[in-house]
Amino acid sequence: MPEIRHDPTAPTRSRLLPPGGGIDAHRHDDHQIAYAARGVVAVTTDAGSWVAPGNRALWIPAGTVHAHQAHGELELHLVGLPATDNPLALDRPTVLAVGPLLRELIVAYTRTPDQDTPERARLRAVLLDQLRASPQQPLHLPTPGTPVLRALCALLDADPADRRTLAELGRAVGASDRTLSRLFRADLGMTFPQWRTQLRLHHALVLLADGLPVTAVAHRCGWASASAFIDVFRRTFGHTPGGHAPR
User: pTM score, two decimals?
Assistant: First the structure.
């Protein structure tokens, strides 16, 4: 296993990453917020993966071993906060909604990370206030712990457009649909349809960041029509896939 890099202080900075680029697994003693002003950022831990488009940010608690992955041209803004600053009392990675004001606060705060001025302190205070008002979003794709679920999830991750039922998938991995249904709830904390929708949305965000047309994304990710995809996407992210095109 490669050595996990330990950075005692989570850096506050902005950086550009090319499509497919990333930051290898590491951890901080401080909390960190990861926000993509352009492109899509994914954060992966042993517990699963979280994906955030431009109206979402990722909260990464202190001590969490995590890696960043860029999808599309990524303009990544990272905000480090001392472990004592946890406005939502979150102890695991979480996706947060980002409104226009919070977006501008994050971008402004990371623009001059080395300044230590009263103005910057006030900016940070307002940023924390906005974080306290940010609703959490259920955009987590958990990692299965049982071998049979790992096999099933790998099939769908390789082809999210696979429309086989749970019973049909069960025959492929050697388990009944009743057993699999119970494992999804016990191991992943969600039903099979909920997990499959999360998986398809994760793939959709990546494909949109790569510039694929909405209709092509819908079919590649398993929706019967572009309109069905748009409806699910809007209800989940608050805007249409067309509004998520690379900037």
Answer: 0.82
Domains and CATH numbers, the chain: 5-140 (2.60.120.280), 144-244 (1.10.10.60)
Query: What's the alpha-carbon Rg for the chain, to the nearest Å?
Result: 19
Cβ contact 120:112 at 8 Å: yes
Cβ–Cβ < 8 Å for 9, 29: yes
**What CA–CA distance (Å, rounded) separates 161 from 92?**
30
Q: Are 108 and 136 in contact (CB under 8 A)?
A: no
CA angle 202, 203, 208 (to 5 degrees): 100
d(CA 35, CA 15): 11
CB 28 within 8 A of CB 7: yes
Other C-beta atoms closer than 10 Å to the C-beta of 133 total 13
Q: Are strands 22-28 and 5-7 parallel, antiparallel or unpaired?
A: parallel
Q: What is the pLDDT of residues 65-105, one digit of tens each?
A: 999 999 888 999 999 999 988 888 888 899 898 999 999 99
DSSP 63: T
Query: In sequence order, what are the beta bridge partners of 59?
Result: 33, 94
Q: Tell me the two tokens of residue 244.
A: 């998520």
CB neighbours of 219 closer than 8 A, spacing ≥ 6?
Answer: 161, 226
pLDDT in tens, 14-70: 999 998 899 999 999 999 999 999 988 999 998 888 888 888 899 999 999 999 999
Residue 134, both tokens: 């940010």
